[in-house]
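Lab notebook, bench 4. The sequencing result for the construct came back, and we need a structural model before the next group meeting so we can plan mutations. Quick request posted to the team channel:

Model the 3D structure of this chain.
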Amino acid sequence: QVQLVESGGGLVQAGGSLRLSCAASARTFSTYNMGWFRQAPGKERECLAAISWSGSTYYADSVKGRFTISRDNAKNTVYLQMNSLKPEDTAVYCCAEDRGSAYYSRTYYSPNIYDYWGQGTQVTVSS
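Done. Here's the predicted structure in token form:
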């Protein structure tokens, strides 16, 4: 059974930092594309960052320059380093696994292409 388990969320003051981790159970993790999404109450799910199996990265304009996605294939883990956090970053953050969509560089932002999702971790940024 595929599992994606997020950790690292919590409460932080505006301007602070958090690093989220997503541990994947798949043996062939290194061949999958991975994305980080968030969803705030009353808002649509938003793709924040994505990383292809080959290491190419993609970011939403809202987090570019503040968030960094990375992966450690030896640990089957993808990370999201979040700096300069703002109250509007408050949301549930989820990782997702894509097992081989075509043209990932053009479709990474769409939740529909991802095959598996984690349960999410809450991030709350206080002002």
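The longest strand covers residues 91-98.
Will bring this to the meeting.
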